[in-house]
């Protein structure tokens, strides 16, 4: 049986996980996170493709790909979450999207409280560290029909 494809899309600055503010985002690198999510996904019967970019247009292109092929998405748009209407307009086209934030943005600076993409996703997980990505994959495996 072919595995259900899932895209995990990490946006701006998330390629620096492990080096960037480890007190907020932890010590795990993006490469380690990606390897872990591919393994976790395989255990759940999912073929997980983890990508990261600092370029908004590339991120939008990946959302178009998910929309066209009906692929569920886990996304952490990083700071774009707070102001990118372009990503909001793209994510609304994706049939199933879970937004993940490593930190609880509502306990941080006021500018992080504005979430312009959240109204267009299926659900949001925030403040649970990198474990939020695992929860999102587990939810997709159990809730999204193949
Ligand atoms: C983040 C929270 C954002 O405010 C921040 O700009 C990020 C990471 C998180 O995962 O907690 O880059 O999305």
TrEMBL record:
The active site is at residues 25, 101. Its EC number is 4.2.1.10. It catalyses: 3-dehydroquinate = 3-dehydroshikimate + H2O. One of its GO terms (molecular function) is 3-dehydroquinate dehydratase activity. GO terms for biological process: amino acid biosynthetic process; aromatic amino acid family biosynthetic process; chorismate biosynthetic process; quinate catabolic process. The keyword Amino-acid biosynthesis applies. Pathway: Metabolic intermediate biosynthesis; chorismate biosynthesis; chorismate from D-erythrose 4-phosphate and phosphoenolpyruvate: step 3/7. It comes from the Bacteria. The keyword NAD does not apply. The record marks 20 as: Transition state stabilizer. Keywords: Amino-acid biosynthesis, Aromatic amino acid biosynthesis, Lyase. Pfam families: DHquinase_II. Substrate binds at residues 76, 82, 89, 102-103, 112. Homododecamer. Belongs to the type-II 3-dehydroquinase family. Catalyzes a trans-dehydration via an enolate intermediate. This is 3-dehydroquinate dehydratase. The lineage of its organism: Bacteria, Bacillati, Actinomycetota, Actinomycetes, Propionibacteriales. The gene is aroQ.
């Amino acid at each position: 049986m072919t595995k259900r494809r899932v895209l995990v899309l990490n946006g701006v600055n998330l390629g620096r996980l492990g080096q960037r503010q480890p007190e907020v985002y932890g010590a795990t690198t993006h490469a380690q996170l990606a390897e872990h999510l591919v393994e976790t996904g395989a255990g759940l019967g999912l073929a997980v493709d983890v990508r990261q970019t600092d370029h908004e247009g590339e991120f939008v292109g990946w959302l178009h790909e998910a929309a066209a092929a009906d692929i569920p998405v886990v996304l952490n748009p990083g700071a774009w979450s707070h102001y990118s209407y372009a990503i909001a307009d793209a994510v609304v086209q994706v049939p199933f999207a879970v937004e993940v934030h490593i930190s609880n943005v509502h306990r941080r600076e006021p500018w992080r409280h504005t979430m312009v993409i959240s109204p267009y996703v299926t659900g949001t997980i925030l403040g649970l560290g990198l474990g939020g990505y695992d929860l999102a994959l587990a939810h997709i495996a159990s809730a999204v029909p193949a």
